[in-house]
Design a protein that fits this description.
Blueprint: E1 2-7, E2 15-16, E3 20-22, E4 25-27, H1 35-43, E5 48-53, E6 58-60, H2 61-72, E7 77-79, E8 86-91, E9 95-99, H3 101-108, E10 114-118, E11 124-125, E12 130-136, E13 140-142, H4 143-156, E14 160-164, E15 169-176, H5 182-196, E16 202-210, H6 213-220, E17 228-232, H7 243-250, E18 254-258, E19 269-273, E20 276-281, H8 292-301, H9 308-312, E21 344-350, E22 366-367, E23 370-371, H10 372-382, E24 387-392, H11 396-402, E25 409-412, H12 420-430, E26 437-442, H13 450-458, E27 468-473, E28 476-477, E29 481-484, H14 488-492, H15 501-506, E30 511-515, E31 522-523, H16 527-531, E32 537-538
Helix pairs in contact: 2-4, 3-4, 6-7
Pfam family, one: NTP_transf_3
Organism: Oharaeibacter diazotrophicus
Keywords: Magnesium, Nucleotidyltransferase, Transferase
């Protein structure tokens, strides 16, 4: 293939290497230069183009990509039509992606012009998921090079395949302790059902027993007619002699492997009973987020026998995206002064325009003889928070004057008109490194007290996975809401006046609720509400927990 600048008069039959703008629109790279194209380029004043001209032994990029994709695609995989030197391969059905990694490496070593990329091997994929892509880098490759790559693929066939899932019958044994709420068990079953659904597998037996070796062993013996048993322990397994592994052996089963080099997911048990696999699920498997449990479950659903050697080979690629509910050790500056008490900042949002209140700023309206915002801020300073940050915006000087004498740090948000999320972002950014969490307060909730805040802070237990604390009254959520530093980036990514309902919904395992008084549901958005001529507003949209009813 020849590549380089070509006089327009000599370019017919070549391939345009770079896009060129003309009065009739842009000619994209890869365009075959024919008489009509030459006329358009000439009209645009182009005298020379960068082009590629194929030789007699060259194969066009699209033809090459299509041929190699066909050689790579195995059972359960189909290749789409090529374009710009690329052919994508998709799963025909749900299943486990099987990849001959040595063959992929060998194809990629034939020549830098020929490339193949795949998704991680031995992971589940759904129907229609792209599982691999073939890309020819230049506009053409020598036929001899492509023949070498195709020969490698055909020798190793199948290189990329999707092993179909099986509709397994699954038994679940859940152990119970007084501290484990029934709702947690129900949610866990729902999460597992969601994991099984792509395979058409289903839960056919649900056994709930005390967290006791004999009780678990009896339950394991009572789940005949199933293909897989999953045990969710109410307490984490810490030793082979612990309740769940001991119960499995007592029931006549064996432990294939305890623990796995995937995080989260370390505390998984792989066992066997009566010819059926038994999985002791790690605590993180109660969450729908990816964890080591998925690595093993997907293989079993595809009919593969998982061995101890398989599990120990999962370490490379086994460090997954963190799930926020995992125990969070406190480190660095947060431990500098007091290793026992977590340091929490209060961020008071006081930047809004209060448009529903009329021409005046509701935060400056008097409540019991003082400006409304001063009540909220004084509650923060009188509580156990380590620092109080007030975010101002509309009528900033007047709001700051209303807080005279209070030990606060004021941060001005010049973008307050763009929505409450901008104030939240400014407040979160101002939290000092020594504070590991922030309780976000609203300046128009004057009935929240220091005791309310202390109650919320007391429920923050990062070591137990309680990283968000939401106050509740009469079955409804309110404000203020406490957020671990793990969520600061997500909070800062919010836009406009949208709240964090989606953030709470996506991380239910990290949310703890605490019962409080009616003050967590009361704000004042109108003069009538403040004057008592109408009931106070409830469930304010703080950009932190919004459950408006």
């Amino acid at each position: 293939m020849k590549f380089g600048p070509v006089r327009l008069a000599d370019a017919e039959g070549a391939i345009l290497a770079h896009a060129v703008a003309t009065a009739e629109g842009t000619l994209r790279k890869g365009t075959l230069i024919d008489a009509a194209v030459i006329a358009r380029l000439a009209a645009a004043g182009v005298a020379e183009v960068v082009a590629a001209r194929l030789g007699p032994d060259d194969l066009h990029e699209d033809a090459a990509a299509a041929e190699l994709a066909r050689a790579i695609a195995g059972p359960g995989v189909e290749a789409d039509a090529p374009a710009t030197g690329r052919s994508n391969l998709f799963a025909r059905h749900g299943g486990l992606l099987a990849v001959d990694e040595a063959a992929i490496h060998a194809v990629n070593r034939v020549d830098p012009a020929i490339t193949v990329a795949t998704r991680p091997a031995l992971r589940g994929v759904e129907a229609g998921r792209m599982v691999a892509t073939v890309k020819i880098i230049p506009f053409a490759v020598p036929r001899t090079l492509l023949a070498r790559a195709v020969a490698v693929a055909e020798t190793a066939r199948p290189v990329v395949a999707v092993e179909p899932y099986r509709a397994l019958r699954v038994a679940v044994v859940s152990t119970l302790l007084p501290a484990l709420k029934p709702s947690v068990v129900e949610k866990t079953l729902g999460v597992l059902a969601g994991r099984l659904a792509p395979a058409g597998a289903r839960i056919v037996a649900d056994r709930r027993v005390p967290h006791d070796e004999a009780a678990v062993a009896a339950a394991l013996a009572d789940v005949g007619g199933t293909d897989l048993v999953v045990v969710f322990g109410a307490s984490a397994v810490v030793d082979e002699a612990d309740v769940v592994p001991a119960a499995l052996r007592r029931a006549g089963g064996l432990i294939e492997h305890l623990g796995m080099p995937v995080d989260p997911g370390n505390l998984l048990i792989l066992g066997e009973l009566g010819g059926r696999p038994v999985l002791g699920a790690p605590g993180c498997a109660r969450s729908p987020r990816e964890n080591g449990f998925d690595f093993v479950l997907e293989r079993i659903l595809a009919g593969r026998r998982v061995t101890s050697e398989d599990v120990t080979a999962m370490g490379v690629g086994g460090l997954l995206m963190d799930i926020v509910s995992r125990p969070a050790p406190r480190t660095g500056e947060a431990l500098a002064e007091d290793p026992d008490a977590p340091k929490v900042a209060a961020v008071v949002l006081a930047a809004g325009r209060s448009t529903r209140f009329g021409p005046s700023n509701k935060l400056l309206a008097e409540v019991d003889g003082e400006p409304m915002v001063r009540h909220a801020v004084r509650a923060a300073t009188a509580s156990g928070v380590a620092e109080t940050i007030v975010v101002t915006g509309h009528m900033a000087e007047a709001v700051e004057a209303a807080l005279a004498g209070l030990p606060v740090r004021v941060v001005h948000n010049p973008d307050f008109a763009a929505g409450q999320s901008t104030s939240l972002r400014a407040g979160i950014a101002a939290v000092s490194p020594t504070s590991e969490a922030a309780v976000v307060m609203l300046g128009d909730m004057p009935r929240v007290t220091a005791a309310t805040l202390d109650r919320v802070i007391a429920a923050y237990r990062p070591g137990a996975g309680a990283l968000v604390v939401v106050p509740r009254h009469d079955g409804r959520r309110g404000n203020p809401v406490l957020w671990s530093r793990r969520f600061f980036r997500d909070l800062s990514a919010l836009e406009g006046d949208t709240g964090a309902r989606a953030l709470l919904a996506a991380n239910p395992e990290a949310v703890a609720t605490v019962e409080c008084g009616p003050e967590v549901r009361i704000d004042y958005d109108t003069p009538d509400a403040l004057a008592g001529r109408a009931g106070p507003d409830t469930a304010p949209d703080a950009g932190v927990d919004v459950e408006r009813r």
